[in-house]
Design a protein that fits this description.
- 52% of the residues lie in helices and 6% in strands.
- The chain is built from 13 helices and 6 strands.
- The chain has a 3-stranded antiparallel beta sheet with strand order 1-3-2.
- The termini are far apart.
- The chain is mainly alpha-helical and 295 residues long.
- Helix 1 packs across helix 4 and helix 12 runs antiparallel to helix 13.
């Protein structure tokens, strides 16, 4: 076994371990491949498993890892530090055992589509929600938007959503969402709007999280995130940031700053005012500038 094959085997084993950790039980049918098992779970769950299965590559391994990428058995992350296995890589590991070639194309589309550059654009309401979460500084699992809190909190969240809608509409990032404060039944509009956001997780490459109990956050300032500013840039670009936003830079910055300082007392417990200082406002402003300049 050469060095490249050894790295590929490590990638496969790491993926298998993460799948077992997810499923909590070992595969009952030994005739089924890992590819088929991955096909049976939701795409978001699969994306989580793939994200956790990447391995860090040392300088000594770089040449061998790069050859796997050239052969399409693996793919680099953006910084070329971590390696993830691809559909072809899994199949290479399993090809002597399982005859599953006929499902590879389907798997590429169903499971690994988040690696493709072409993805479905965010809906206008999704853009409003992401923009509002950045403004509110719901930027880690320690500081989520919690829709279990009372009506005062929900009403303040709704006011931020309306403000974000008005601002994004004014800079031509979205169409005006006229019914943003309306809902059927007795459910509060803020709760209703967040309830249908599961697809955003995949569209934001796992940055958006709905963590249960009606809590939502953006995975930006977490210990395993190397470059939080890059993630903010990515989100601004998804929302539609372009060079035209330069004309509205001060307006956006002012909205972000005022929203955080004026709304935090209504939305978060005092112990969770953790992203209010200038350091985090500066990171948001830097990300916005980079997103505006990025072609």
């Amino acid at each position: 076994m050469d060095e490249s094959d050894g790295i590929l085997e490590k990638l496969y084993e790491k993926l298998y371990v993460e799948y077992i950790n997810y499923s909590k039980t070992k595969r009952k049918n030994n005739n089924e491949s890992l590819l088929i098992n991955l096909l049976k779970i939701t795409s978001n769950s699969c994306m989580e498993i793939i994200a956790k299965s990447k391995i860090q590559i040392s300088q000594d391994e770089y040449v061998y890892a790069d050859s796997l990428v050239m052969d399409k058995y693996a793919t680099w992350d953006n910084e070329k530090r971590y390696l993830s296995i691809t559909v072809r890589g899994i199949y290479k590991c399993e090809s002597n055992i399982y005859n599953i070639e006929y499902i590879l194309d389907a798997l590429e589309e169903i499971i690994f589509r988040f690696n493709k550059s072409k993805s479905k654009p965010l809906r206008d309401i999704d853009k409003v929600i992401i923009f509002s979460m950045v403004a509110l500084r719901a930027l880690s699992k320690e500081c989520p938007i919690d829709l279990q809190m009372g009506d005062i909190t929900k009403q303040e969240i709704l006011s931020v959503l309306k403000g974000s809608n008005d601002l994004l509409f004014s800079i031509n990032a979205i169409n005006d969402i006229k019914d943003i404060g309306k809902t059927k039944g007795n459910e509060h509009p803020a709760s209703y709007l967040f309830r249908y956001t599961e697809k955003i997780k995949g569209q934001t490459n796992l940055i958006y999280h709905a963590c249960g109990d009606r809590k939502y956050y953006l995975k930006i300032f977490e210990s395993d995130v190397d470059n939080p500013v890059d993630r903010l840039v990515y989100l601004f670009k998804l929302i539609g940031c372009n060079s035209n936003w330069d004309n509205y830079y001060e307006v956006i910055v002012e909205f972000m700053s005022k929203t955080a300082t004026h709304k935090n007392i209504y939305i978060f417990d005092p112990g969770k005012y953790i992203y209010l200082n200038y350091e985090y406002q500066d990171k948001i402003e830097s990300a916005l500038k980079l997103a505006i300049d990025l072609k």
